[in-house]
Structure formats: C-alpha cells, structure tokens
Design a protein that fits this description.
Residues 1-18 form the signal peptide. This protein is α+β, with helices and mostly antiparallel strands and 141 residues long. The chain has helices spanning 2-18, 21-39, 43-46, 68-78, 82-85, and strands at residues 57-60, 63-66, 87-99, 102-112, 117-129, 132-140. The chain is globular, with a radius of gyration of 17 Å. The chain starts with a helix and ends with a strand.
Length: 141
C-alpha cells in the first residue's frame, strides 16, 4: 500500500512538473499561429503546427487520414481559397499534460464565411519534438 501511494505521489509530482506555464504558452502560441495563418488564407503555414510525419493522424468527418502531406492535400481540397477558409476562431477549453513531452488539448473551432458558418470541437495530442510543440493527432468534428 505504501509503495502504491509513493508511486501515485511521484506520478502527480511528475505531471505537475510537466505543466509549466512556458509549455502551456508555447502550445497556445502554436494554435494562435495556426489561427492567424488560416485567416490569411495560408494553409501551408497553418500546417506548420503539425508534425511533418507520415504518422500524423487527422480524424475528421470522413474518417482517419494518416500523414502530413495527405492532411495538407485534404485541407486544400476542402478549403481551396481564402473565401472558403473564412475567419477561424478557437475556444480553448483545457490543456492537460500527460507527461513532460505530451499534451492533450480540448477546444472548439468556428469558421465564419460570407455564406455560412461552420463550427465544432477538436481534441489534439501535441508532442514536444526537438524542443517544439507539434500536433501529432487531431480529431476535429
């Protein structure tokens, strides 16, 4: 029982250590940069928030997509120009650190266009890769 309690306390301490204000702000900065680039109509720059990897996982209304390039291609197909991209806003609901280098983000998204408005929620897994936070999993609905 004592070993279990000590182990749990260590895990809590490690998780608390992982939740540094600097890391939280770095994640918020990634998302803010994405928002700004989207609103400029620059989907390639928006994609810089994602890990440039074949293992990137994006799950949307059409199911899972693997890979950075395929995700970019899908964005370009679905949002071919600035008018289609509209004006993006995020509502960040929570950021939880699973360990020092992995974080979970829950939020909402809203795209306002001249003819309509799209909105939904997202969950992200971000990983600190070479000192930079990158999205490795995105489930948007």
């Amino acid at each position: 029982m004592k070993k279990i309690l000590i182990t749990l306390l260590c895990l809590v301490a490690l998780n608390t250590y992982a939740q540094t204000p600097k890391d939280k702000q770095a994640i918020l900065d990634v998302l803010e940069s994405q928002r700004q680039e989207w609103n400029k109509g620059n989907v390639e720059a928006y994609m810089q928030g994602y890990a440039k990897s074949d293992s990137l996982l994006f799950v949307g209304k059409n199911g899972p997509t693997y890979g950075w390039q395929k995700t970019l291609d899908n964005y370009k197909k679905g949002y071919p120009d600035k008018a289609a991209m509209g004006l993006l806003t995020f509502g960040i609901k929570k950021i939880d650190f699973l360990n020092q280098d992995v974080a979970f983000v829950l939020g909402s998204w809203n795209v306002k266009r001249a003819q309509d408005e799209l909105k939904g929620y997202f969950t992200l897994l971000l990983k600190k890769i070479n000192g930079q936070w990158k999205i490795i999993v995105d489930h948007s609905s």
